[in-house]
Every structure is written in C-alpha cells, then in structure tokens.
Specification:
Structural class: alpha/beta
Strand order of the largest sheet: 4-3-5
Strand content: 5-15%
Radius of gyration: 21 Å
Shape: elongated
Number of strands: 5
Helix content: 40-55%
Length: 155
C-alpha cells in the first residue's frame, strides 16, 4: 500500500514546528502524542528526510524542517485565501484586495485609491492594514497582502 502526503500531515508538521513539543502540539491538534509522532515519522519517510532533531529534552527543526515550515506556512496562507475568495464569490463579491500602507499614505493616497477602486471595480472589497515598511515587504513576500505603500529611504 503506498502512502502520500496529505494536508493533515502538513498541518501536524506546522503545529509541531511552532510548538517544538510533541505533547503540546498533540493537545492543540486533539490527537494523541503517539499518533502525532507516528504521523511525523510517516511524513519523514515519505519525504525521505528528517524534519526534526529529537532528543529526550527537546525538539528542533532541521534545515529541511525550517525550509518546509516556510513553505507550509505559505501553502496554508494560500488555502485561507482560497476559502475567503470562495465565500466572496458565493456572496456575489468579485474578490478582495489586501493593502498594506504607512500612516502617511492614509491622508491622501489611500482615500483616493479606494474611491477610484470602488468606482471602477465595485465588487472588489478592500482590506486595509497600516504597517511598517519591513512588515509590508514580508507580507508581500508571503502573499498576505496584495499591495503595499512603502517609503524608500535613499542614502
């Protein structure tokens, strides 16, 4: 019987990678600790790589585990976006535009943009988040916002 990676494996991995404790991760996932351990071992066997360094006292991510954690976070971010978009489509909305901005853009740039967007694309909802430059760049990279207004400092 051949096995394949399923979303639940990735979710189990993600929670364990965040908690770095089998008992705590298992409790969060509402499964037994041996069950979680078995699923992680199965996943490592399927991927032919160790994702965690385990000792009696601690659990740490390997380099492969760190990489997979970043990818899994991105994957689940996309899954959440898909779910939100499906709800929007069902409700008759055409989508959502997630915008990050600096406080200074809130005075003129953002209101003008929203006004024009509502006029041109009335079915598109906008989600505005004020955040610093660095966070906007990080969120853009992780597909957590679609557009960012940053200030570039030239030296």
């Amino acid at each position: 019987m051949s096995y394949q990676i399923e979303l639940r494996h990735l979710k189990y991995f993600q929670v364990l990678a965040e908690e770095l404790r089998f008992r705590k991760a298992a409790d969060k996932l509402f499964i037994s600790q041996p069950g979680l351990s078995r699923q992680i071992k199965q996943m490592e066997a399927l991927l032919n790589v160790e994702l965690f360094d385990r000792t009696k006292k601690k659990v740490e991510l390997t380099r492969a585990g760190v990489y997979l954690k970043q990818e899994v976070d991105l994957l689940f971010s996309h899954v959440e976006n898909i779910k939100k978009e499906l709800v929007n489509i069902e409700a008759g909305n055409q989508g959502e535009l997630r915008i990050g901005f600096l406080g200074s853009a809130a005075q003129k740039i953002i209101p003008e943009l929203i006004f024009k967007l509502n006029k041109i694309l009335p079915g598109v909802r906008t989600n505005l988040d004020e955040m610093p430059n660095k966070l906007q760049i990080e969120f853009l990279d992780k597909d957590m916002i679609d557009l960012g207004f940053v200030r570039i400092h030239q030296f």
